[in-house]
Design brief:
Shape: globular
Distance between the termini: 23 Å
Order of helices and strands: EEEEEEEEEHE
Number of strands: 10
Radius of gyration: 16 Å
Number of domains: 1
Strand content: 35-45%
Largest sheet: 10 strands, mixed
Number of helices: 1
Structural class: mainly beta
């Protein structure tokens, strides 16, 4: 699987990095899957969501817009070393509704975005329906249930 680099879309990428590495399904090398700028890992009742907000953009209701939303289960802490926090989890296999991950580095939610003229601070407003990347069943089927390593630095 090719690396999906979304750092150009994410908030505050200077000195902040998040990487998602796919553990091999059997024996083999791990593969870096996602590269992000700043990201949040938020716990819900029985699962977690890795969220990366779009930089300088909001949705049509002025809520945050996302470069990525990845639902995870079984998130555990591994270690902190070399200024990096390492965690593990599994892509939630029963939740395609929260799975909003672009399929390539060329994903561009700003194509039809407008500049907000109502706020003092300049920002983009992405069109309705673009506050998260579209669901891609093929990508979801490829990674659902897979173990991932999260590396925050």
């Amino acid at each position: 699987m090719d690396l999906i680099d979304l750092t150009h879309l994410c908030r505050t990428t200077n000195n902040r990095s998040t990487r998602v590495v796919l553990a091999p399904p059997y024996r083999g090398a791990r593969e870096e899957w996602l590269k992000l700028g700043m990201a949040d890992l938020i716990q819900h009742q029985d699962y977690w969501i890795l969220k990366a907000y779009l930089k300088n953009a909001k949705d049509f209701e002025h809520d945050g817009a996302f470069a990525l939303r990845l639902p995870l289960i079984g998130v555990t802490f591994e270690a902190i070393y070399a200024n990096q926090t390492h965690m593990y989890g599994w892509v939630r296999p029963d939740d395609h509704e929260d799975f909003n991950v672009p399929t390539s580095s060329s994903y561009n939610p700003f194509l039809n975005a407008t500049v907000c003229d109502q706020c003092e601070e300049k920002h983009y407003v992405v069109p309705e329906g673009f506050y998260v990347p579209p669901f891609d069943r093929g990508l979801y089927e490829t990674v659902k249930g897979r173990k991932v390593q999260l590396i925050f630095s």
